[in-house]
Structures are given as C-alpha cells and as structure tokens.
Amino acid sequence: MFPSIQNQMLEHLKKSCMALNDDLAGTGIVLTENDVSVIVHSRTEVLNRYGRIGLNTEIIETLIVRFSTSPFIQPSEFVEVVSELYEIFQYIKHETDDMIFDEEIVVFMEEAFNGPAQGSLAYLAEKEATDFINGYRGLED
Fold it and tell me: Taking CA 116 as the corner, what is the angle to CA 110 and CA 121, rounded to the nearest 5 degrees?
C-alpha cells in the first residue's frame, strides 16, 4: 500500500478511536492520544506479522466498544487487552481463510472472553479460539 494512503488511514483510525471516548463514558475507560497510538501501532505490527493489509479500521473500534464493558478488564489494562484481542481476531481470520464474517468472530470472542475464559486472554487464544477454528474446519477436539 502507498505510504501516504496508509498514513491517512492510520490518522483516520486514531481520530475515530479518540472519538470513542464519548461511547466509553461510564466505563471508567478514557483513551488518551498515547493509548490510541499504542493500539494503532500494535495493530500495524499484528498485520505485518500475518502479512495482511489492514483496509478495515472498524474492527479496532468495535473491539474497543464491545469489550469496554467487560467485568474482567480493568481500565489500566484496557489498551494492552485490546491489542491482544486484535491479535486473536487476526489469528482467527488467518486460520479460517477469511471465510467468517468479522462480526461473527467479534461476537464469539466477546461471549467466550466474558464466559468460559472469564477474562483470560490465554484461555481465549489457546482453548476457545482453537475450538472455534476447529469447529469451522469440521474437526473435533
């Protein structure tokens, strides 16, 4: 992707994430410019690791809003958790060959994180995501 287009997308993502502070009111989470920069940088690293081009910037925003009300995430850990959730999201996308809608993956992640994983990112990534992927592939545990 051309650097100028990529930079414009990243700036748009940063502004969009900062605008989410209104939606986060009442959760105890307030995203600073530094927080957003960390999340966006982490997103770029994850995409590079998977050899992907990130045209969809809405997933980060969706993860921020959907997980902001989780009883298992402390505001002080929120930026790190969102970054790790994005990595898990991309792992699932990669392992399912992009054949599952983004919203379906986010709903699965939210239900698993707040349910069986009880806020454990390791359990979400290692057990729940693996089971989800194997279910997609038609494999059993």
Answer: 60
DSSP state letter for 98: T
For a pLDDT cut of 70, what percent of the chain falls above it?
Answer: 94
Tell me, letter by letter, the H, E, C secondary structure of 78-126.
Answer: HHHHHHHHHHHHHHHHHHCCCCCCHHHHHHHHHHHHHCCCCCCHHHHHH
Helix, strand, coil shares of the chain, percent, nearest 5, are 70, 0, 30
Predicted confidence band at 9 (pLDDT cuts at 50, 70, 90)? confident
Give 19's contacts (C-beta < 8 A, 6+ positions apart). Answer: none
Candidates 98, 92, 34; CA nearest to 63 is: 92
Stated pTM of the model: 0.91
